[in-house]
Amino acid sequence: MSKFLTGRAGTWTGFAAAALVLFGAAPLLLSGFRLGLLAQFLCYAIVAVGIGLAWGRGGMLTLGQGVFFGMGAYLMAMHMKMADAEFRNGPGSVPDFMELAGIREIPAYWVPFASPAFTIAAILILPTAFAVLLGFAVFKRRVKGAYFAILSQALAGAFAILLIGQQSMGGFNGLSRFRYFFGYNLDDPINQQMLYFIAAGILLVVLAVALQLRRSRYGELLVAVRDAEERVRFLGYDAANIKVVAYAAAALFAAVAGAIFVPIVGIISPANIGIVPSIMFILGVAIGGRGSLIGPVIGALAVALAQSALSEQFPSAWTYAQGLLFIVVIALLPGGIASIAAATKRFRREPVTAEAPA
Amino acid sequence: MDLLVGQLFTGLSTGSILLLAALGLSLTYGQMGVINMAHGEFIMAGCYTAYVTQQVVGDAGVSLLIALPTGFLVGGAMGLILETLLIRHLYHRPLDTLLVTFGVGLVLQQVARDVFGAPAVNVTVPQFLRGGVDLLGTAVPKTRLFILALAIAAVAAVTLVLRFTPAGRRIRAVVGNRDLAETAGISSRAVDAGTFFIGSGLAGVAGVALTLIGATSPTTGQSYLVDAFLVVVAGGMGRIKGAVVAAIALGTFQAVFETYSTASLAKVGVFVVIVVFLQLRPQGLFTLRTRSLA
Amino acid sequence: MPQRFKFRARDVARTFTASAAVTALALTAACGSRAGEETAAAESCVDTSGDTVKVGALNSLSGTMSISETTVRDAIYLAVEEINAAGGVQGKQIEIVAEDGASEPTVFAEKAEKLIREDCVAAVFGGWTSASRKAMLPVFEDNDSLLYYPVQYEGLEASENIFYTGATTNQQIIPALDYLAETGVKSLYLVGSDYVFPRTANAIINAYAADKGIEIVGEDYAQLGSVEFSTIVNQVNASGADAVFNTLNGDSNVAFFREYANVGLTAEEMPVMSVSIAEEEVGGIGVENIEGQLAAWNYYQTVESPENTTFVEAFKAEYGAERVTSDPMEAAYNSVYLWAATVEKAESFAVEDLQAAADGVSFASPEGTVVIDGDNHHVTKTARIGQISADGLLYTVWESEGPIEPDPFLEGYDWAADLKVTE
Amino acid sequence: MNQAALTCTNIEVEFDGFKAVNGVDLTLDSGEVHFLIGPNGAGKTTLVDAITGLTRYTGSVTKDGTELRGKKVHHIARKGIGRTFQTATVFEHLTVAQNLDIAAGSGRSPWHLLRQRRHLPDQVVAVMEQIGLDGQAETAAGVLAHGQKQWLEIGMLLVGDADVLLLDEPIAGMGHEERDRTGRLLHDIAATRAVAVVEHDMDFMRAFASRVTVLHAGAVLAAGTVDEVSGDPRVQAVYLGSVQEQEVADAATA
After folding, report:
1. Is residue A58 part of a domain?
2. HSE (CB half, 13 Å, CA atoms) of C420?
3. Is D231 a member of any domain?
4. Three-state secondary structure readout of B92-136
């Protein structure tokens, strides 16, 4: 049974079951609105997979994932605003929010985003490249642990402040009022369902990539760096390179999640990417189990669901619950929900693997 | 010209505020490597201590003098409780401590909201601190001079305690080499608790002082926390000297940058400067060099 | 043991291909209408067959904006109770479905959609920040539903699906400038939080000043929530301006006014005109720091009218004698009555019927009579300059001659020609 | 017969004005088990830190004619210089096999790394046997006995093809039988490599040292065979005389 769960058949079964739930059961059982909500939550789950990799496996507490999420989201939003303006008023027209801000000409850095291909390339490359650059800057200098956490948090704060100050990026209000997604009407329920499928598909792909990274030699090396970075260095590896890969992968996942978040939710603003949203990404991962593959997904979905369901009835109680979850889960159950499952496995004398958190 | 003098003083003043907020943090971080995200809420607790004291005492001047030591005790007591109940059990998990204390901060914020209400409350500035004094042709608010003096006093007090009291020597011994200190018969557990008491108490004092210039609301602490962390990171962990230099440098940088640009860009500028700076000195301005593996 | 080292990359690769294939399949199978094609309009699910009609109240009950927005919610509840006690709308009792916007635009959008599509409410009352309104706007347009938005804002917007019951710029900013010009102000310093309302407001002020020969001697923006005003106040002090126009938001006002008072600036020598400080904020700033300063709104608790006396008494009876009433609360209170009056006029709850009937609908409100403008969905409002007094309340020192017609795009002002936008 | 595998010349390390290592010359020869002894604070571990690139120093360290000073830690490691730590540092959440596989793979290409392991490399299997852990390939390193962890760490250097091994107190906390096994292992290893051992245990040194260098206050006090060093009056004065006291203190800090 346990061998089945970790073996090849288990992988297949797991993915098949997930696909069945995401592509079959959910669209059948949920109303259009609920499905849209689930699509939004799936975006958080995609971010969570990346955090699981960087934090759970690599020991890098990335308190600034909002930056990469925001980059992906804003890049996509820029394209959608350009496309809207072009469709309504012809090529070269200024997006509506810029008119309101008194901007009469499209800023140069907006122009290439009229192209869908450029936009997609930018979403895949820019945030990742930024993460690589930043990663080298800090990891090569052996900035790590709490230093790294604080720096990444400050980065999220600085990024949000920077965006708020840019009227040509929508400022505090952010970018909203999108009508089309690569030519498809966003107010059509069928297209909204399509967005959900895209989000679900991306989640599965991201999980597959993360699984491969975990099972590869690189995955073992990453755990080694987490547990004893100096030891790895004295074995002849450049630990910074190893960390940068996981950090960049987490950034890429977050950017893709942000990019699909925009058409699903219809708005991106600095409020989604600052210090607090960034640390809230962590909560779901901690609850689900940072070290496991699927734990962060479950945790992120559970937190988003709880927030959506509880905050309206008990706004004050929800804040307490958030705080207490941080305290209780991390202090008492650092492995999250996933560690409960792992504990029962261990009870059946399974070989110990690398599931334990840092 | 007047503006320049004013801005230089502003830099000093902003630096002293940062320092007051960061001093306790630097102490606890250096001592235990613990990032206490609830530090901002301890500052907030200091603000509300000043508020409550003023409600009870009435006279703004007297209540300020009472609130300063009371704030120290309130902050210190909260720190002691936090250390005993949670942090003590998480010593080898610094990142987890960070997240746990973030949760504590969330809870404390909501407690403040439920007890005192969400809107800011008013702490009256005592008559003798109202208005400004003329300094080289610029009006300098007395409140800021008071905070500057308080920051200097706090640094002096901490330095004296660390240097010349037996408790301070124990703290320095544990910071220098925990294991060795323990073999010398120092209870590192007691020292940790003591350090946390002092560090959190300083947050309380900072809170009381900050009511003179800022708002007293449940989110007050948050506005100072990230900047305070940057001071600690740039200054080098556990080095009071580093915190002082970093706070004043960052304060001045921000004030000068802000004059020629916007406040928002100044914040971004500070971040960039710190990342670049860490390229040159990854461990901050001043570090304790030991042979142990970090 | 050797089994554990078997190569598993292949099935991961297969999984990868499979999930990519599924996604591609789903995409091609599930594509709906493209740009330019008609989309089947979302069917309204509002049910008015029973004795009750549901409306939504969407305010931030948590997060930074909850301070302000809970007061608006209280006013909405008060209006609904009064209308229900008087027999309801079209004979139906109003039932409120409350949601928390959590001070986050995305949550506002999400909850608005829930109220419309899941709860099937006939209209939604709420929103505060422009960010929240901008986030909700497409939701209301796509689902063809109605939002009543009760806060003064930066104008330049007129959606078919929103009724704006707070002031637009020509009912607040421009009267405030007129007042300052009348009192002989020749130079202004602009201080604001770094977001859309202050920036738009200051663009208008700059155009106005250029036209009227007022010098703008400085313009500074502080990060939202910033509490460090030493630099800005130093610059204000050094500028020697006749007055300051303040569009700061929230706790920043506390720090700003304290610093302002501390460097020795007073309302007599350099008055500050604020557009975001109402009765609730005065307490936190400290009356001693702000006494004598000016504010521009349409309503103060101290407005003298029978309607206001009734409103204030009812509010205090419901929520406690220590509570104060403010402009956004009054506008929210009005918005419920205006909706009810429109429904009575249209004899229908349907969105298109309300849109058709809205023009000219009026309500004798605490601030004076307000009338809906059917073209731009704003309402007429009386502008009032208030002065903050030692009791923490604001007293009217100047008021416009009768209600001002709403002009969100400032089409009636020649000097604003450059600010105009095409909608 | 012996050739110098590593040559250190005039090494100086300074911490805030305090010279922890003050002008040390040291040559490690292939085929030798070379013991570095000295009281606490003599600069033994600091010297190892300097050689392996962890600590800045002045002077020179060369291996096969290449200057190592100023190179990064992982570059020095790839030159074939391996070290262990005072407390055995292994990857506790990985299995013994995984630990060794990682140690064997510092030269792997990224493409290689991103794929799964088909089978264990031959040298990993061989070393597992050599260090006596062949029965525990699938055991998590964290649950190994204290001594086994130290062997595993040495094994990690072996699979990584290090030919200069710097071992920091490899028998700390071991029982008699384990010490003997470790000693024999060291001699096996030293057949083709240079092995330096930082150690306090005098009996262990006497039993297994081919050569001894005594450090005191950052400088070399004496060097030579066990007998030569033991007979040196200066060594007896500063070190061996106080050995009793020293061992008590060491036991407390361990």
Report:
1. yes
2. 11
3. yes
4. CCHHHHHHHHHHHHHHHHHHHHHHHCCCCECCCCCHHHCCEEEEC
Q: What is the ipTM of this complex?
A: 0.88
Domain annotation covers residue D101: no
- Please answer yes or no on whether B183 and D45 come within 8 Å at the CB atom: no
Asked whether C355 and C160 are in contact (CB, 8 A), the reply is yes
Q: For the segment B7-48, what is each residue's pLDDT rounded down to a tens digit?
A: 788 889 889 999 999 999 988 887 777 889 999 999 999 999
C36 interfaces chain B, CB cutoff of 8 Å: no
What count of CB pairs under 8 Å joins C to D?
Answer: 16
3-state secondary structure (DSSP) of residue C398: strand
The three-class DSSP label of residue A185 is: strand
Provide the number of structural domains found in chain D: 1
* pLDDT of C9 higher than 80: no
Tokens 């991103």 label which residue?
A: D114
Within this chain, do residues C225 and C155 fall inside the same structural domain, yes or no?
no
- C19 found inside a domain: no
Whether residue D113 is contained in a domain is answered as no
Put residue C408 in one of left, alpha, beta given phi > 0 → left and psi -120 to 50 → alpha. Answer: alpha
Number of domains in chain C: 2
pLDDT per position as a tens digit, B134-178: 877 777 889 999 999 999 999 999 999 988 888 888 888 887 777
Nearest by CB to D45, which of B180, B289, B291? B291
Round the average pLDDT of chain B to a whole number and report it: 86
Q: How far is C15 from chain D (nearest CA, A)?
A: 15
For chain C, say whether A218 makes contact (Cβ under 8 Å).
no
Asked if C170 and C404 count as a contact pair (C-beta separation under 8 A), the reply is yes
Instruction: Tell me the mean pLDDT in the region A46-57.
Output: 96
b/e map C68-80, b = 16+ CB within 10 Å: bbbbbbbbbbbbb
Please state the domain count of chain A: 1
Which residues are within 8 A (CB) of A45 and not within 5 positions of it... i.e. 6 or more apart? Answer: A203, A284, A296, A297, A300, A301
Q: Is the pLDDT of residue C16 over 70?
A: no
Where are chain B's structural domains? 2-280
Same domain, C346 and C249: no
B→D interface, C-beta within 8 Å: 179-180, 183, 289-291, 293
- Within this chain, do residues C156 and C100 fall inside the same structural domain, yes or no? yes
For residue B86, the SS3 value is coil
CA distance, residue C11 to nearest chain D CA (Å): 11
Same domain, C278 and C410: yes
Domain housing C396: 173-297+385-419
Alpha helices in A90-173 (DSSP H): 96-100, 116-139, 145-165
The domain spanning residue C71 has which CATH number?
3.40.50.2300
Nearest CA in chain C to B222: C225
Residue D95 sits at φ, ψ, to 5 deg, of -75, 170
Give residue C25's pLDDT. Answer: 57
Q: How close does chain B come to D157, measured CA to CA in Å?
A: 19
Tell the CATH topology of B2-280. Answer: ABC transporter involved in vitamin B12 uptake, BtuC (1.10.3470)
A246 occurs within a structural domain: yes
The pTM score is 0.90
Tell me: do C135 and C73 sit in the same domain. Answer: yes
| D45 CB within 8 Å of a chain B CB | yes
Residues of chain B with pLDDT > 90, as a percent, come to 38
Print the domain residue range for A331: 2-347
* CB-nearest partner of A150 from B96, B107, B233: B233
**A193 contacts on C by Cβ (under 8 Å):** 30, 32
Please report residues of A whose CB lies closer than 8 A to that of C35: 87, 179-180, 183-185
Q: What is the CATH number of the domain that holds D210?
A: 3.40.50.300
Domain housing D12 = 4-89+161-253
8 Å CB contact of C262 and B217? no
Say yes or no for a CB contact (<8 Å) between C12 and A215. Answer: yes
Under DSSP, is residue C294 helix (H, G, I), strand (E, B) or coil?
strand
